[in-house]
Amino acid sequence: MGSSCSCYRFLCIPQIRRKKKLAANNPYAPNNSGQNNFGRPSSPQSTARQSGDNTNIFGQSVAGSAATQAPFGAASMNSGNQLPDGTEPAAFLRIARQRFNHIQSVNSASNVEEIRRYLTPELYNSMYSDIVANQDQDVAEFSNLNAMVVESTTENGQYVVSVRFTGTVSEDLNSLPQPFTEIWHFVKPAGSQQDWVVAGIQQA
Question: How far is CA 136 from CA 10, 20, 168, in A?
């Protein structure tokens, strides 16, 4: 992936790594000094890493516990390890994986309005030209998709949850699977019942 980028407000959009992938650096990512952009050191104490956070594509914890079935953003009081809005991490990750796969599947010029539903206006506007330029209807296949919450906080009146996705991706039927790692940053206004939307996608 090239190092040059065009900056839009607080977002920096690098060259897209693969034809079916949305890619964007994000103001919520850690910087080189070891400080994240919430103004705190990047450390285990500042993240929301629980044993139940690391789950596979089926919503199952690698430790063997099953994910809850709460809807995306709905409060659940089972474990005491909720995200800022009260959501259980396992429930959040289950829907985050579905959101990941859905956005990948509709990433083409014919689906710009569908994609808009799941992105912040700033991210959508900064990526619009790349989305409409994508006329290829091939859909990348993501195998062994795993998700882990790596950051959750309340900042500037917003809930913010960062999810690391890992696995393998085949860009088309003739491509060999390649490993990938990305961090997706989900946000919503604090105290609201609005749905979570993606504020940035960071290549890791």
Answer: 29, 8, 20
